[in-house]
């Protein structure tokens, strides 16, 4: 599990970021323009620092959108209901019940993300008050007090690497038609299925 949490998820997230950038050249151009403008103004080092990357709004939007559209973890983030039970969405759930939700489900809710929920559109994260509201539903690292313990180090690695590589190298996508997106690890915790049922969900 340490290997999965420490490297696999970050690698998958980076792949999603670069793949979506290369599939959407106008987004890539806009991000590079932001980085070049900041470098020309002396606000980006050759090796981008954490503070410098954090101050790049479009970079942050691209990263959030890439992890929303293709979350590294597709399984259900499970929690145990306290022994006294609790009300969830208007229904009483007995204590000891395992409940959970998948980032892929939350990140595909049209009532949250709009009718274009299945489109890669970083601008949605920069649209005024809506941006802070969307972050409430960003579930790539889980949420609440049980948020992934490696979230901050993973985000730091990704934002530094993406910004630095884009300023140093040109990228292009090869054989895009052979690339397919799928989530192959979704755990269902419903009474009608076994505890560890695994379902394939196309994206």
Automatic annotation (TrEMBL):
<dbReference type="GO" id="GO:0005506">
    <property type="term" value="F:iron ion binding"/>
</dbReference>
<keyword id="KW-0503">Monooxygenase</keyword>
<dbReference type="GO" id="GO:0016705">
    <property type="term" value="F:oxidoreductase activity, acting on paired donors, with incorporation or reduction of molecular oxygen"/>
</dbReference>
<feature type="binding site" description="axial binding residue">
    <location>
        <position position="148"/>
    </location>
    <ligand>
        <name>heme</name>
    </ligand>
</feature>
<dbReference type="GO" id="GO:0004497">
    <property type="term" value="F:monooxygenase activity"/>
</dbReference>
<keyword id="KW-0408">Iron</keyword>
<keyword id="KW-0349">Heme</keyword>
<comment type="similarity">
    <text>Belongs to the cytochrome P450 family.</text>
</comment>
<dbReference type="GO" id="GO:0020037">
    <property type="term" value="F:heme binding"/>
</dbReference>
<dbReference type="Pfam" id="PF00067">
    <property type="entry name" value="p450"/>
</dbReference>
<protein>
    <submittedName>
        <fullName>Cytochrome P450 monooxygenase</fullName>
    </submittedName>
</protein>
<dbReference type="InterPro" id="IPR050121">
    <property type="entry name" value="Cytochrome_P450_monoxygenase"/>
</dbReference>
<dbReference type="InterPro" id="IPR001128">
    <property type="entry name" value="Cyt_P450"/>
</dbReference>
<keyword id="KW-0479">Metal-binding</keyword>
<dbReference type="InterPro" id="IPR036396">
    <property type="entry name" value="Cyt_P450_sf"/>
</dbReference>
<dbReference type="InterPro" id="IPR002401">
    <property type="entry name" value="Cyt_P450_E_grp-I"/>
</dbReference>
<dbReference type="InterPro" id="IPR017972">
    <property type="entry name" value="Cyt_P450_CS"/>
</dbReference>
<keyword id="KW-0560">Oxidoreductase</keyword>
